[in-house]
Amino acid sequence: MIRGMGGDDLLRGNGGADFLYGGDGADTLSGGAGNDWLEGGAGADIVMGGAGADRFVLTAVSDSTAAAQDRFDDFSYAEGDRIDLSAIDANTALTGDQAFRFIGSTAFSGAAGELRATPAGNGLMTVYGDVDGDGVAEVQFLVRASALSGAEFLL
């Protein structure tokens, strides 16, 4: 496990299954070869998986917001990469832990728990998650991909 602190950290894994956690700050995480767990924490992080089936992880809506978006570079569904949002409660109006529902590029309907993705330009997609049903994303991040479907996510 490689853990950053409160500053803007640069964390690099090597071959093998690395666990990288950036903590607070605008961190850069690079997993390298192997099946890595990559969790930026709070702040506008740049996260690169490298070769292998990597897991890009957000555990709270505050990990990536409109004001401090994470960017997941080197994301490859074909290599087994996944975006893990399973620790985030997608509906704060209900007790327990609800999963997001991926709705493609469709606009939010006003129901809590919706997750959508739209092209952002330059080979990036913006992913938005609404946890309270107000039609505004509480969690927001960028993924280097030409398209996204529900299959890329662990919800």
TrEMBL record:
What keywords appear on the UniProt entry? Secreted
Q: What InterPro entries does the record point to?
A: Hemolysin-typ_Ca-bd_CS (IPR018511), Hemolysn_Ca-bd (IPR001343), RTX_toxin/Mannuronan_C5-epim (IPR050557), Serralysin-like_metalloprot_C (IPR011049)
Q: Which GO terms describe its cellular component?
A: extracellular space
Pfam families documented for this protein:
HemolysinCabind
Where are the coiled-coil regions? none
Q: According to its UniProt record, where is this protein located? A: Secreted
GO terms assigned for molecular function: calcium ion binding
Its predominant location is secreted
PANTHER family in the record? S-LAYER PROTEIN
Q: What is this protein called?
A: Uncharacterized protein
Source organism: Caulobacter segnis
Organism classification, top ranks? Bacteria, Pseudomonadati, Pseudomonadota, Alphaproteobacteria, Caulobacterales
